[in-house]
Amino acid sequence: GDVVHRMLTATQYVAPLMANFNPGYSRDSTVRYWDNGTVFVVQWDKVYLQGKEDLGSFTFQAALHRTGRIVFGYKEIPVPVVRISAAQHPVKAGLSDAFMILNTAPDVPESRRRTIYEYHRVELDTGTISSLSAVEFTPLPTCLQHQSCETCEGSELTFNCSWCHVLQR
């Protein structure tokens, strides 16, 4: 999206492994991406934890498929993820999304207040992340696939959807 805010890593992420990584520690450390139009892949290769470089390097990737399928692949995880300190940076793995609305403050009409609404989060149990493992997320049909009030209200999905005329969602 085009909105950057200080709560971005807390509310909007696709994170195979979020931690305090230091890609500048070694010349062999890279963060690369590749896109062939069908799948977009980001790979963290031989990255080290800041201040804990002696633990070894991590290699993992996230593959986002055009179909909505997401695969996290873990090649090298040298220590149990549960042992990584979250003191300097959050440690988590999973998916989260949110949206932000700018509201005017009632007492100051010319001001704008940002309100972030997190609407979905999938957290992985970091204790299950290990070398040579993978996690796959397969999307389910949702209300968000509907582009009009008619298709939303006529849907056979069992989510009790309703159309918001203000947001056109």
From TrEMBL:
Keyword DNA repair: no
Species: Eudromia elegans
InterPro entries with a match to the protein in the record: PLXDC (IPR031152)
Major place of residence: membrane
Gene this chain is encoded by: Plxdc1
Gene Ontology CC, one term: membrane
Family: Belongs to the plexin family.
Statement: the UniProt record of this protein carries the keyword Transmembrane helix: yes
Membrane topology: Single-pass type I membrane protein
Listed name of the protein: PLDX1 protein
Keyword vocabulary terms for this entry: Membrane, Signal, Transmembrane, Transmembrane helix
Localization, UniProt: Membrane
Superkingdom, taxonomy of origin: Eukaryota
